[in-house]
Design a protein that fits this description.
Elements: H1 2-7, E1 10-16, E2 18-20, H2 27-36, E3 42-43, E4 49-50, E5 52-54, H3 55-68, E6 72-78, E7 84-85, H4 86-97, E8 105-106, H5 108-121, H6 130-137, H7 145-151, H8 159-172
Helix pairs in contact: 2-4, 4-8, 5-6
């Protein structure tokens, strides 16, 4: 790497965490739909931490990286500084949607067994798979300290505002 970085004025690789916001048709939109339909169940209490980044904050991070990252070869994680638990995330989504239901918690193992049985006996698409449960139960966090130190990055959008923007977009596009 020393030799390579000496010849390249600046090479920056950004590794974003889960990206969400207007235009999202992935995991966050699926979670919003589950909460809206009141079909969500917390995996083992919803304590699993997740690193997230709102799309507009990621765009700001890209601009900062281009302008302020030091010369040479740099790899940075991009996320909000503090991870959120899946419970906090679901509670925020529910608040934005006006859903007042308190979502139950089921142990991870029991959910996986139920999902496996459903997959075996239900034709077509099942509501949830063991792999999706595993995803919800797996900590996916990263530290952005190195990026903050190099660029001064600070996301400008709080979680509730970012979720509100995605929900409004999804409603406008009749996705929820």
């Amino acid at each position: 790497m020393q030799t390579l970085s000496g010849r390249i004025p600046k090479l920056v690789i950004l590794r974003p965490s889960l990206v969400f916001g207007e235009g999202d048709r992935g995991n966050m939109l699926s979670l919003i739909k589950q909460v809206q339909k009141e079909e969500y169940v917390h995996v083992s209490g919803g304590v699993t931490p997740k690193s997230l980044i709102y799309a507009n904050d990621l765009a700001d991070a890209i601009l900062l990286a281009a302008a302020r990252a030091p010369q040479g070869f740099n790899i940075y994680n991009i996320a909000n500084p503090e991870p959120v638990s899946t419970k906090e995330l679901v509670d925020t989504i529910a608040d934005v949607l006006g859903v007042t239901k308190k979502f139950p918690s089921v142990p991870e193992g029991l959910l996986k067994i139920g999902a496996g049985i459903a997959r075996t006996f239900m034709p077509g698409k099942v509501p949830v798979t063991p792999e999706q449960i595993e995803k919800l139960a797996t900590e996916t966090t990263c530290s952005i300290g190195k990026f903050v130190q190099a660029t001064g990055f600070k996301p400008s959008t709080d979680l509730k505002s970012a979720i509100s923007k995605e929900v409004n977009w999804a409603r406008e596009n009749q996705l929820i």
